[in-house]
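User: Hand in any protein.

Assistant:
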Amino acid sequence: MSRHHFTLAALATSAVPGLEVAVARPFTGGGSGEHDAALITAVDGRHAVVRTPATPRAEDRLLAEVRALAALTAGARSRLPFGVPTVYGTGAHPTTVVTSYVPGSRLRPEAVQAGGRLAASIAAAVAAVHALPTGLVADAGLPVQSASDAQRAVAEVVDAAAATASVPRALLDRWEQALDDATLWQFTSTVLHGSLRPETVLTAPRGTPDEAVSGLLDWSELRVGDPARDLAWALGLPGTGAASGLFAAYHAIRRGAADPSLRQRAMLHAELELARWLLHGRATGRQEIVTDALGMLAGLARGVEADTAGSLGPEPMPVLTLDEVERMLDDQRSMMLARTGPVPLPATVAQRARSSSAE
C-alpha cells in the first residue's frame, strides 16, 4: 500500500530535525514506481523530496544512493556542471530519505540532435563525472573495478547467458569474440555514475533555448569502472547521428583520456543488458520478463546476421574538435552560471541533517 504524501511529510520531519513542512504533494518525477515520494515545501518556500522504498530492492538502491551522495564531497560537486541531490536526513522504520530537490525536466531522447547543444551538454556532463578523482570513490568504500575486472564481469554475464541455452548462437559468438579482443579492454577506469539513462538526466525546462543538462539523479551505482557503461544508453538515441555526435563530443572533451574502443564496449554493454534482463526474469520466475528478453535477443540476433547491428570491432570515430564542442556549449554557459542548483533547506536544518546522516 502506497503512503499518502501527508504521511511522507510527517516522516520527513522525523528524518530532518527542525524541518517545518508547509506544503506536501505527491511526486512521481517520472520514476518507475519503486518509491513512495512527495515533494515538500518548507515554511520558507524551499523544496525537498522525501522517499520511502516500495520494495526490498528499492530499499537497497536507496541506501546505496545515500552512501554514494555522501562520497560526493563539496569539492567534487564543484567540478560538476549540473546539480546533484544533497541528503538532508534519513530515518528508519520505514526507511526514509530526504534530499534536496534538483529542478529540471526528464531528458527527452528525441530532443538530442547531432551537433546540438544538448548532445554537447550531455557529453560534458558525463565527461565531468569521469574526470573526478577515483580516490573519492575508493575512500568511501564503493566498488572499484579495473579493466581486467570489467572484462571478467562481462565474461560472467556471457557465461550465465550461455548456460540458459536460450540465447542465439550468433550473439554468444559475437560477445565471446569481443571478450577475446585484447584491444577492446585497454582502457583506464574512471569514476562512473553507473545508472545513466534518460530518466536520470534532468535538463533545463523543455522548449527553452538553453536546454541543457541541469542535474543527474540516482547515484546508487556510483563506482570506479569502465567509462563505456555510462554511455551505453546513448546508443539508443533516436535522432539521426545523435549518438555519434555525443560520442564525438565526449572524445573531444576528454581528449587523450578517452580510449578509441569506448563506443564498441558501450555497444557490448548495451547488448548485455538484454542478457541481464533474461537472467533477471529467470531468477525471479517472471515469465513475462523472460519472454520480453528473448524477443529482444532474437531481434538483435537478426540484426547481427543481417550485418545491421554494428561492429564490436575497431571503428573510426567521428572527429569533432574541442573548439567545435566549445561553440556548442557557449550558448548554455550563461544559464549554467545563473543556475542555482539544488535548493538547500535552512542552514540549521541542513547542518542537523548532515550530523544525523553521519551517525
